[in-house]
Automatic annotation (TrEMBL):
<dbReference type="InterPro" id="IPR038973">
    <property type="entry name" value="MutL/Mlh/Pms-like"/>
</dbReference>
<feature type="domain" description="MutL C-terminal dimerisation">
    <location>
        <begin position="74"/>
        <end position="213"/>
    </location>
</feature>
<dbReference type="InterPro" id="IPR042120">
    <property type="entry name" value="MutL_C_dimsub"/>
</dbReference>
<feature type="region of interest" description="Disordered">
    <location>
        <begin position="27"/>
        <end position="46"/>
    </location>
</feature>
<dbReference type="GO" id="GO:0016887">
    <property type="term" value="F:ATP hydrolysis activity"/>
</dbReference>
<dbReference type="InterPro" id="IPR042121">
    <property type="entry name" value="MutL_C_regsub"/>
</dbReference>
<dbReference type="GO" id="GO:0032300">
    <property type="term" value="C:mismatch repair complex"/>
</dbReference>
<dbReference type="InterPro" id="IPR037198">
    <property type="entry name" value="MutL_C_sf"/>
</dbReference>
<dbReference type="Pfam" id="PF08676">
    <property type="entry name" value="MutL_C"/>
</dbReference>
<dbReference type="InterPro" id="IPR014790">
    <property type="entry name" value="MutL_C"/>
</dbReference>
<dbReference type="GO" id="GO:0005524">
    <property type="term" value="F:ATP binding"/>
</dbReference>
<dbReference type="GO" id="GO:0006298">
    <property type="term" value="P:mismatch repair"/>
</dbReference>
<protein>
    <recommendedName>
        <fullName>MutL C-terminal dimerisation domain-containing protein</fullName>
    </recommendedName>
</protein>
<dbReference type="GO" id="GO:0140664">
    <property type="term" value="F:ATP-dependent DNA damage sensor activity"/>
</dbReference>
């Protein structure tokens, strides 16, 4: 019991009434937002135009600035290795692989002389390379030259390497290609090693026998080697052989 029961009773009663009394809340409706004039509305940026990148042209096959319209005419492929062309009064048997190989060889030499090295591609995942015998000796004796050509090697153990970069022209798999090149080179002298490597890089990059080229590509190659007076591939094989109409007439007994 409380000494002042009446006062306590009154306070408790008021507290209970305050808790249980229903409460009414009022919310005023929001005023409608004023519409902005059309000219004030932000303009929607135009959708970006996506451009599909065209694949780069094949090395030494793309038309070059200022190329004269060739006088020759492509008659078609002749076997897997050649194309037959008509150039004036001559029929030309054209070895397109030898032609492109020589053009690439000359371009690589020019790039090396001007820039001191070739453009290289760095691999996200290094390629393993294992060498033995003369191939390993050739690599070890010419590491600095190989670095100038774009090869980046990390030694792991005797005869075992990671190939971390290679000349951009080489493609994939670069380690297997480098191994085959080093095995092909017959213990060259240091003075000849650079030309041997460039010749084999050009050979690996050039179109192979059996691959079909467009008439425009054949005419471009033919015009380039004719313009530069190139007669043989880096390995010494002739790029073309031709026979004149007069020679054909003599051969067939049709002299005028």
């Amino acid at each position: 019991r409380f000494r002042q029961e009446r006062e306590v009773y009154t306070l408790v009663k008021r507290a209970v009434e305050n808790i249980t009394k229903p409460r009414i809340s009022f919310s005023l409706p929001e005023a409608p937002a004023e519409e902005s004039p059309a000219e004030d509305l932000p303009l929607k940026p135009p959708s970006p135009v996506l451009k599909v990148a065209e694949p780069p042209p094949s090395y030494a096959l793309s038309p070059f600035p200022g190329m004269l319209k060739p006088e020759a005419e492509v008659l078609g492929p002749f076997g897997a290795e050649f194309y037959l062309l008509k150039d004036g009064d001559r029929l030309v048997f054209f070895d397109f692989h030898a032609a492109q190989e020589r053009l690439i060889f000359e371009e690589l030499k020019e790039t090396l002389a001007q820039d001191g090295g070739l453009k290289k591609q760095v691999f996200l995942t290094p390629e393993p390379l294992k060498l033995t015998g003369q191939a390993l000796t050739t690599l070890e004796e010419n590491l600095s030259l190989l670095e100038n050509l774009g090869f980046e090697l990390e030694a792991l153990a005797p005869g075992e390497f990671f190939l971390r970069a290679a000349p951009a022209i080489l493609g994939f798999p670069a380690a297997e290609t480098l191994k085959s090149i080093l095995e092909e080179i017959p213990a060259p002298e240091a003075s000849h090693f650079l030309d041997e490597m460039l010749a084999r890089l050009a050979c690996k990059a050039a179109k192979r026998a059996g691959e079909l080229l467009s008439n425009a590509e054949i005419l471009h190659l033919y015009s380039k080697v004719k313009e530069k007076r190139l007669e043989r591939c880096p390995h010494g094989r002739p790029i073309s052989w031709s026979i004149s109409l007069e020679e054909v007439r003599k051969k067939l007994g049709r002299t005028l």
